Automatic annotation (TrEMBL):
Pfam families: Acyl_transf_3. The keyword Iron does not apply. InterPro entries: Acyl_transf_3_dom (IPR002656), Acyltransferase_3 (IPR050879). Keywords: Membrane, Transmembrane, Transmembrane helix. GO terms for molecular function: acyltransferase activity, transferring groups other than amino-acyl groups. Residues 23-328 form the Acyltransferase domain. The chain crosses the membrane at residues 28-47, 53-70, 90-109, 168-185, 197-217, 229-258, 307-332. GO terms for biological process: polysaccharide biosynthetic process. One of its GO terms (cellular component) is membrane. The keyword Transmembrane applies. This is Acyltransferase 3 domain-containing protein.
Length: 344
Protein backbone atom coordinates (compact mmCIF):
# COMPACT_ATOMS: atom_id res chain seq x y z
CA UNK A 1 0.00 0.00 0.00
CA UNK A 2 1.19 3.54 -0.74
CA UNK A 3 1.63 5.11 2.69
CA UNK A 4 1.13 8.80 3.30
CA UNK A 5 4.84 9.24 3.90
CA UNK A 6 5.60 7.72 0.52
CA UNK A 7 2.96 9.99 -0.96
CA UNK A 8 4.70 12.98 0.58
CA UNK A 9 8.11 11.88 -0.59
CA UNK A 10 6.98 11.09 -4.11
CA UNK A 11 4.93 14.26 -4.34
CA UNK A 12 7.83 16.43 -3.33
CA UNK A 13 10.08 14.70 -5.81
CA UNK A 14 7.35 15.17 -8.37
CA UNK A 15 7.47 18.87 -7.55
CA UNK A 16 11.15 18.85 -8.39
CA UNK A 17 11.18 16.61 -11.42
CA UNK A 18 7.61 16.59 -12.71
CA UNK A 19 8.14 12.90 -13.54
CA UNK A 20 6.93 10.75 -10.66
CA UNK A 21 3.20 10.20 -10.28
CA UNK A 22 0.86 8.48 -7.86
CA UNK A 23 -1.93 6.80 -9.75
CA UNK A 24 -4.81 7.25 -7.34
CA UNK A 25 -3.93 10.89 -6.66
CA UNK A 26 -3.96 11.53 -10.39
CA UNK A 27 -7.35 9.82 -10.33
CA UNK A 28 -8.47 12.14 -7.53
CA UNK A 29 -7.51 15.06 -9.76
CA UNK A 30 -9.38 13.36 -12.59
CA UNK A 31 -12.45 13.09 -10.38
CA UNK A 32 -12.16 16.80 -9.63
CA UNK A 33 -12.10 17.87 -13.28
CA UNK A 34 -14.83 15.36 -14.15
CA UNK A 35 -17.10 16.95 -11.54
CA UNK A 36 -16.37 20.41 -12.96
CA UNK A 37 -17.14 19.25 -16.50
CA UNK A 38 -20.29 17.47 -15.43
CA UNK A 39 -21.45 20.50 -13.45
CA UNK A 40 -20.87 22.82 -16.40
CA UNK A 41 -22.06 20.74 -19.32
CA UNK A 42 -24.34 18.02 -17.96
CA UNK A 43 -25.56 19.62 -14.76
CA UNK A 44 -27.92 17.83 -12.42
CA UNK A 45 -30.37 20.33 -11.02
CA UNK A 46 -29.74 21.04 -7.36
CA UNK A 47 -26.30 19.40 -7.17
CA UNK A 48 -23.37 21.83 -6.98
CA UNK A 49 -20.97 19.33 -8.54
CA UNK A 50 -18.84 21.98 -10.22
CA UNK A 51 -18.04 23.61 -6.91
CA UNK A 52 -17.46 20.20 -5.38
CA UNK A 53 -14.91 19.44 -8.08
CA UNK A 54 -12.96 22.58 -7.26
CA UNK A 55 -13.03 21.76 -3.54
CA UNK A 56 -11.90 18.19 -4.25
CA UNK A 57 -8.83 19.67 -5.93
CA UNK A 58 -8.28 22.30 -3.22
CA UNK A 59 -8.09 19.61 -0.55
CA UNK A 60 -5.55 17.58 -2.54
CA UNK A 61 -3.51 20.71 -3.14
CA UNK A 62 -3.48 21.51 0.57
CA UNK A 63 -2.27 18.01 1.41
CA UNK A 64 0.57 18.03 -1.11
CA UNK A 65 1.75 21.59 -0.50
CA UNK A 66 1.77 21.05 3.25
CA UNK A 67 3.86 17.91 3.00
CA UNK A 68 6.29 19.56 0.59
CA UNK A 69 6.70 22.80 2.55
CA UNK A 70 6.40 21.71 6.18
CA UNK A 71 7.64 18.13 6.23
CA UNK A 72 10.26 17.89 3.51
CA UNK A 73 11.12 21.58 3.80
CA UNK A 74 11.73 22.03 0.09
CA UNK A 75 13.60 25.36 -0.37
CA UNK A 76 11.28 28.21 -1.24
CA UNK A 77 13.23 29.03 -4.39
CA UNK A 78 12.64 25.49 -5.66
CA UNK A 79 9.02 25.57 -4.55
CA UNK A 80 8.31 28.83 -6.37
CA UNK A 81 10.13 27.73 -9.51
CA UNK A 82 8.10 24.54 -9.72
CA UNK A 83 4.82 26.33 -9.07
CA UNK A 84 5.67 28.89 -11.76
CA UNK A 85 6.60 26.24 -14.32
CA UNK A 86 3.43 24.34 -13.48
CA UNK A 87 0.97 27.23 -13.68
CA UNK A 88 2.26 30.26 -15.56
CA UNK A 89 2.98 28.98 -19.11
CA UNK A 90 -0.45 27.37 -19.60
CA UNK A 91 -2.17 30.26 -17.84
CA UNK A 92 -0.51 32.93 -19.99
CA UNK A 93 -1.19 31.00 -23.19
CA UNK A 94 -4.86 30.82 -22.29
CA UNK A 95 -5.05 34.56 -21.59
CA UNK A 96 -3.08 35.42 -24.73
CA UNK A 97 -5.49 33.48 -26.91
CA UNK A 98 -8.65 34.65 -25.13
CA UNK A 99 -7.75 38.33 -25.08
CA UNK A 100 -6.06 38.07 -28.49
CA UNK A 101 -9.17 36.67 -30.17
CA UNK A 102 -11.25 39.32 -28.41
CA UNK A 103 -9.03 42.04 -29.86
CA UNK A 104 -9.23 40.54 -33.35
CA UNK A 105 -13.03 40.66 -33.33
CA UNK A 106 -13.10 44.22 -32.04
CA UNK A 107 -13.73 43.52 -28.36
CA UNK A 108 -10.38 44.52 -26.92
CA UNK A 109 -10.24 43.98 -23.17
CA UNK A 110 -9.49 47.10 -21.11
CA UNK A 111 -6.45 47.22 -18.86
CA UNK A 112 -8.75 47.14 -15.84
CA UNK A 113 -9.76 43.65 -16.98
CA UNK A 114 -6.42 42.32 -18.19
CA UNK A 115 -4.04 43.48 -15.47
CA UNK A 116 -5.93 42.07 -12.45
CA UNK A 117 -6.49 38.83 -14.35
CA UNK A 118 -2.79 38.40 -15.12
CA UNK A 119 -1.89 39.20 -11.49
CA UNK A 120 -4.39 36.70 -10.02
CA UNK A 121 -6.43 39.53 -8.54
CA UNK A 122 -9.51 39.49 -10.76
CA UNK A 123 -11.75 38.17 -7.98
CA UNK A 124 -10.96 41.44 -6.16
CA UNK A 125 -10.45 44.06 -8.86
CA UNK A 126 -12.20 46.01 -10.18
CA UNK A 127 -14.43 45.85 -7.12
CA UNK A 128 -17.54 47.11 -8.89
CA UNK A 129 -17.34 44.68 -11.83
CA UNK A 130 -17.03 41.04 -10.82
CA UNK A 131 -15.30 38.48 -13.03
CA UNK A 132 -18.54 36.51 -13.44
CA UNK A 133 -20.02 39.55 -15.16
CA UNK A 134 -17.13 39.72 -17.62
CA UNK A 135 -17.85 39.13 -21.28
CA UNK A 136 -14.58 37.16 -21.47
CA UNK A 137 -14.39 33.49 -20.38
CA UNK A 138 -12.35 34.09 -17.25
CA UNK A 139 -14.87 33.37 -14.49
CA UNK A 140 -13.24 30.06 -13.62
CA UNK A 141 -9.92 31.73 -12.85
CA UNK A 142 -11.15 32.57 -9.35
CA UNK A 143 -9.90 29.13 -8.25
CA UNK A 144 -6.42 29.89 -9.59
CA UNK A 145 -6.47 33.10 -7.56
CA UNK A 146 -7.23 31.07 -4.43
CA UNK A 147 -4.49 28.57 -5.27
CA UNK A 148 -1.81 31.19 -5.88
CA UNK A 149 -2.71 33.21 -2.79
CA UNK A 150 -2.64 30.01 -0.72
CA UNK A 151 0.76 28.99 -2.12
CA UNK A 152 2.16 32.34 -1.05
CA UNK A 153 0.56 32.14 2.39
CA UNK A 154 1.74 28.60 3.07
CA UNK A 155 5.25 29.38 1.89
CA UNK A 156 5.47 32.47 4.11
CA UNK A 157 4.64 30.38 7.17
CA UNK A 158 7.93 28.56 6.70
CA UNK A 159 9.78 31.81 7.41
CA UNK A 160 8.64 32.01 11.05
CA UNK A 161 10.87 29.88 13.30
CA UNK A 162 8.41 30.00 16.20
CA UNK A 163 5.83 28.19 14.05
CA UNK A 164 8.09 25.25 13.30
CA UNK A 165 6.31 22.14 14.48
CA UNK A 166 3.17 24.17 15.10
CA UNK A 167 2.11 24.69 11.48
CA UNK A 168 -0.81 22.28 11.77
CA UNK A 169 -2.49 24.35 14.45
CA UNK A 170 -1.81 27.58 12.58
CA UNK A 171 -3.24 26.24 9.31
CA UNK A 172 -6.36 24.82 10.91
CA UNK A 173 -6.86 28.05 12.85
CA UNK A 174 -6.67 30.10 9.64
CA UNK A 175 -9.00 27.61 7.96
CA UNK A 176 -11.51 28.17 10.76
CA UNK A 177 -10.97 31.91 10.38
CA UNK A 178 -12.03 31.70 6.73
CA UNK A 179 -15.27 30.09 7.89
CA UNK A 180 -15.78 32.87 10.45
CA UNK A 181 -15.21 35.49 7.75
CA UNK A 182 -17.69 33.75 5.49
CA UNK A 183 -20.33 33.63 8.21
CA UNK A 184 -19.67 37.28 9.03
CA UNK A 185 -20.16 38.30 5.40
CA UNK A 186 -23.38 36.29 5.32
CA UNK A 187 -24.76 37.57 8.62
CA UNK A 188 -23.70 41.19 8.15
CA UNK A 189 -24.09 42.12 4.46
CA UNK A 190 -22.97 45.68 5.15
CA UNK A 191 -19.41 44.51 5.76
CA UNK A 192 -19.37 42.01 2.90
CA UNK A 193 -17.68 42.78 -0.43
CA UNK A 194 -20.20 44.01 -3.01
CA UNK A 195 -19.81 41.12 -5.46
CA UNK A 196 -19.64 37.30 -5.15
CA UNK A 197 -17.55 37.21 -1.99
CA UNK A 198 -17.64 33.39 -1.89
CA UNK A 199 -14.86 33.15 -4.49
CA UNK A 200 -12.47 35.44 -2.64
CA UNK A 201 -9.48 33.76 -1.06
CA UNK A 202 -10.29 34.77 2.51
CA UNK A 203 -13.47 32.70 2.16
CA UNK A 204 -12.78 30.09 -0.52
CA UNK A 205 -9.48 28.69 0.79
CA UNK A 206 -11.17 26.81 3.64
CA UNK A 207 -10.71 23.29 2.30
CA UNK A 208 -7.14 23.86 1.17
CA UNK A 209 -6.09 25.22 4.56
CA UNK A 210 -7.91 22.58 6.60
CA UNK A 211 -6.44 19.81 4.47
CA UNK A 212 -2.96 21.33 4.73
CA UNK A 213 -3.22 21.46 8.51
CA UNK A 214 -4.70 18.00 8.88
CA UNK A 215 -2.01 16.56 6.61
CA UNK A 216 0.49 17.27 9.39
CA UNK A 217 -1.65 15.45 11.96
CA UNK A 218 -3.00 12.53 9.96
CA UNK A 219 -0.14 10.17 10.77
CA UNK A 220 -1.28 10.30 14.40
CA UNK A 221 -4.89 9.56 13.55
CA UNK A 222 -4.27 7.05 10.73
CA UNK A 223 -3.96 4.00 13.04
CA UNK A 224 -7.48 4.72 14.27
CA UNK A 225 -9.04 5.23 10.84
CA UNK A 226 -11.04 2.30 9.54
CA UNK A 227 -11.38 1.69 5.79
CA UNK A 228 -15.04 2.65 5.76
CA UNK A 229 -14.41 6.08 7.25
CA UNK A 230 -12.98 7.87 4.16
CA UNK A 231 -15.78 6.35 2.08
CA UNK A 232 -18.41 7.59 4.52
CA UNK A 233 -16.76 11.02 4.71
CA UNK A 234 -16.83 11.37 0.94
CA UNK A 235 -20.47 10.29 0.82
CA UNK A 236 -21.40 12.93 3.41
CA UNK A 237 -19.44 15.58 1.53
CA UNK A 238 -21.18 14.68 -1.73
CA UNK A 239 -24.58 14.94 -0.05
CA UNK A 240 -23.73 18.38 1.33
CA UNK A 241 -23.35 19.70 -2.21
CA UNK A 242 -26.97 18.83 -2.99
CA UNK A 243 -28.42 22.31 -2.75
CA UNK A 244 -32.01 21.12 -3.00
CA UNK A 245 -31.52 19.39 0.37
CA UNK A 246 -28.84 21.32 2.23
CA UNK A 247 -28.22 25.09 2.41
CA UNK A 248 -25.46 26.42 0.15
CA UNK A 249 -23.61 27.63 3.22
CA UNK A 250 -22.92 24.04 4.29
CA UNK A 251 -21.05 23.32 1.08
CA UNK A 252 -18.67 26.12 1.95
CA UNK A 253 -18.28 25.63 5.70
CA UNK A 254 -18.87 21.95 6.51
CA UNK A 255 -18.19 19.88 3.38
CA UNK A 256 -14.47 20.86 3.28
CA UNK A 257 -13.88 19.03 6.58
CA UNK A 258 -15.13 15.78 5.07
CA UNK A 259 -13.22 16.20 1.81
CA UNK A 260 -10.01 17.03 3.68
CA UNK A 261 -10.42 13.89 5.79
CA UNK A 262 -11.10 11.78 2.71
CA UNK A 263 -8.10 12.82 0.64
CA UNK A 264 -5.76 12.59 3.62
CA UNK A 265 -6.89 9.03 4.29
CA UNK A 266 -7.03 7.55 0.82
CA UNK A 267 -4.16 5.32 1.94
CA UNK A 268 -6.48 3.85 4.58
CA UNK A 269 -9.48 3.55 2.26
CA UNK A 270 -10.49 0.15 0.84
CA UNK A 271 -8.35 -1.14 -2.00
CA UNK A 272 -11.26 -0.83 -4.42
CA UNK A 273 -11.29 2.95 -3.84
CA UNK A 274 -7.66 3.35 -4.84
CA UNK A 275 -8.09 0.89 -7.70
CA UNK A 276 -11.08 2.85 -9.00
CA UNK A 277 -9.21 6.13 -8.79
CA UNK A 278 -6.28 4.50 -10.59
CA UNK A 279 -8.33 3.58 -13.65
CA UNK A 280 -6.77 4.94 -16.83
CA UNK A 281 -9.59 7.36 -17.82
CA UNK A 282 -9.51 9.13 -14.45
CA UNK A 283 -5.72 9.18 -14.34
CA UNK A 284 -5.47 10.66 -17.82
CA UNK A 285 -8.04 13.32 -16.96
CA UNK A 286 -6.08 14.10 -13.81
CA UNK A 287 -2.75 14.39 -15.59
CA UNK A 288 -4.15 16.95 -18.03
CA UNK A 289 -6.62 18.46 -15.56
CA UNK A 290 -5.14 21.96 -15.46
CA UNK A 291 -5.24 22.48 -19.22
CA UNK A 292 -8.71 20.94 -19.41
CA UNK A 293 -9.89 23.24 -16.62
CA UNK A 294 -8.54 26.30 -18.40
CA UNK A 295 -10.04 25.47 -21.78
CA UNK A 296 -13.44 24.18 -20.72
CA UNK A 297 -14.60 27.68 -19.76
CA UNK A 298 -14.94 29.18 -23.26
CA UNK A 299 -16.89 26.13 -24.43
CA UNK A 300 -19.06 26.27 -21.31
CA UNK A 301 -19.70 29.99 -21.51
CA UNK A 302 -20.41 30.06 -25.23
CA UNK A 303 -21.80 26.56 -25.84
CA UNK A 304 -25.26 27.78 -26.78
CA UNK A 305 -23.82 30.22 -29.31
CA UNK A 306 -21.19 27.89 -30.74
CA UNK A 307 -23.14 24.64 -30.90
CA UNK A 308 -26.80 25.62 -30.59
CA UNK A 309 -27.66 24.06 -33.95
CA UNK A 310 -26.15 20.70 -32.99
CA UNK A 311 -28.01 18.01 -31.08
CA UNK A 312 -26.52 17.59 -27.65
CA UNK A 313 -24.65 20.87 -27.86
CA UNK A 314 -23.59 20.64 -24.21
CA UNK A 315 -21.98 17.25 -24.76
CA UNK A 316 -20.22 18.58 -27.85
CA UNK A 317 -18.78 21.41 -25.79
CA UNK A 318 -17.65 18.98 -23.11
CA UNK A 319 -15.90 16.68 -25.58
CA UNK A 320 -14.16 19.61 -27.26
CA UNK A 321 -13.05 20.93 -23.87
CA UNK A 322 -11.35 17.64 -23.08
CA UNK A 323 -9.85 17.36 -26.57
CA UNK A 324 -8.41 20.88 -26.54
CA UNK A 325 -7.21 20.37 -22.98
CA UNK A 326 -5.30 17.22 -23.90
CA UNK A 327 -3.90 18.87 -27.02
CA UNK A 328 -2.58 21.90 -25.17
CA UNK A 329 -1.25 19.74 -22.34
CA UNK A 330 0.80 17.40 -24.52
CA UNK A 331 1.75 19.91 -27.22
CA UNK A 332 2.55 22.84 -24.93
CA UNK A 333 2.05 22.72 -21.16
CA UNK A 334 3.95 19.52 -20.44
CA UNK A 335 6.78 20.32 -22.86
CA UNK A 336 7.30 23.84 -21.56
CA UNK A 337 7.16 22.72 -17.93
CA UNK A 338 9.67 19.94 -18.55
CA UNK A 339 12.01 22.34 -20.34
CA UNK A 340 11.76 24.97 -17.60
CA UNK A 341 12.40 22.42 -14.87
CA UNK A 342 15.47 21.21 -16.76
CA UNK A 343 17.08 24.59 -17.41
CA UNK A 344 15.90 26.50 -14.34
Amino acid sequence: MMTIEKIASSSAQHGASELQRIDYLDGWRGLAIFLVLQGHFLAIQGWHSGRMGVDVFFCLSGLLMSRILFQRRVPLATFYKRRISRIIPAFLLFLLIVFGIAALIGKTAPASEVVPTVLFLRSYLPADFHMFASSYPIGHLWSLNVEEHSYIFLSLLTLFPFLRGREAGALIAVGLLTIAIHLSYYAFPDIAPPKEYWVRSEVAATGLLLSAGYALLRDRTAPHVRPWMPVAAFAVATALYVGSVFPWMLTMTVAPFFLAFTVNHLAEAPEWVRSSLSLAPLRLLGIASFSIYLWQQPFYQYKRHLFASLPGHALVGMVLSVAIGFLTFYAYENRVRTWLNRVW
